[in-house]
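QA checklist item 7 of 12: single-chain prediction sanity check.
[x] sequence parsed
[x] length recorded as 69
[x] structure emitted
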Amino acid sequence: MTQCEAVLAHLQRGETLTPLTAFQLYGTLALHSRIAELRERGNIIHCEMVTVPSGKRVGSYSLQRIAYG
């Protein structure tokens, strides 16, 4: 499984992903690049800036669910 596939599967489970979590789980040092690749493939991914315990602000990514109705 590629890093892109792993990141997409994580997001498809309804979970958010930060750079640190992506590194710990999938070994990716460039989450923003994987997200860009997934967006190019048509995935709608939202980024929310969050403050982590160290005080640093990082992007927290989630997959936008499209409601049909």
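[x] summary fact logged: The chain has a mean pLDDT of 93.
[ ] second reviewer sign-off
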